[in-house]
Amino acid sequence: MYKVAIVDDEPVIVRGLTMTIQWEKYNCRVVGTAGDGQEGMKLIREKRPDILISDICMPGIDGLTMIAGMKSEFGPMQITILTGFRDFDYAQQAIRLGVTRFLLKPSKMDELDEAIRVMIENLQRQGIMGTDGESENGVNTGKTGNAGDTEGGGNTGSTGNAAGKGPTGQSAENAPEYPAIKDTASKGAAQTAPGNEPSDKDAAGEDREAGETDSPASCFIVKNALAYIEENYREKLKLSDVADQIYVSQWHLSKLLNKHTGQNFSEILNNIRIEKAKELLKDPSLRIGDIAEEVGFLDMAHFSRVFKKQAGISANEYRNTILGR
Q1: CATH code, residues 267-323
Q2: 86 — pLDDT class (breaks 50, 70, 90)
Q3: What number of H helices and E strands is found in the chain?
Q4: Domain ranges of the chain
Q5: Which residues are registered as beta bridge partners of 30?
Q6: What's the predicted TM-score (pTM) here?
Q7: Which residue from 268, 252, 263 is spatially nearest to 217, judged by alpha carbons?
Q8: CATH of 2-160, one of 1.10.10.10, 3.40.50.2300, 1.20.210.10, 3.40.50.11600
Q9: CA distance 153 to 116
Q10: Cis-peptide, bond into residue 106, ω within 30° of zero
Q11: Nearest to residue 213, comparing CAs of 230, 228, 193, 233?
Q12: d(C-alpha 265, C-alpha 251), whole Å
């Protein structure tokens, strides 16, 4: 059966979705519910659902970033947003990131029925047939079971509301793409990080992985990750800190950064820090040791090694060159 997860901070909504919908007729079962975004993330990583029904306006989360993280890391998973947040631009962005349906509370039963049928149809088109077998990505891949009648269902995202008067959503096919992430590698094309060398896979597996890392959701995640590093480079920043902020695993974020920038996390962080240090070195009143600490290096020797590796000369030589012009 297809595995379903429900995430909403309103208990009455969670109970209603769990108890009112006849999940068995869709060949589905609810494997877990959560009352906030953080619990929801834990639930999704533990249960690996095929279908997620979730609010995006819950305390302590950035809804769009959470959606992007889920679609990037668990690409085949189908997502329907059920929310009271009535913002057309927000709905468009959610659909662009890979959401199947964007429904406004309170939603009619026929809207939920249509959303579930379309999500199942999309899963079937990916060869995910709703059995207890699981693939390497944690989604069902068995060839038995039937999702029921999916007649009339489409496979593009849409919006709706209870009165049927909500904004007309933009389909994923027609939505504008996010700008490609700029390659920040200093030389050459993107490289595969040590320890992440590609393993033997069939062509379909390689195509699926390439699609997931190049998806709008993945581009959105990388842009947010780079922005967070840029804003927090002075801190004692770890890959896990960034991953937590954008709702993906460390492993997945590392893969995305290498794919889109050609650099690993440490290289990206050090590049930012050294560029900031170069700016500060233009001020002769600042001590190099103070500059190193200002840009996030706790050890002067480490700063010196990284700076020389990046710039080709020492920090002091760089300062003398700049000031001598």
Answers
A1: 1.10.10.60
A2: confident
A3: 13, 6
A4: 2-160, 214-262, 267-323
A5: 4
A6: 0.67
A7: 252
A8: 3.40.50.2300
A9: 9
A10: yes
A11: 193
A12: 11
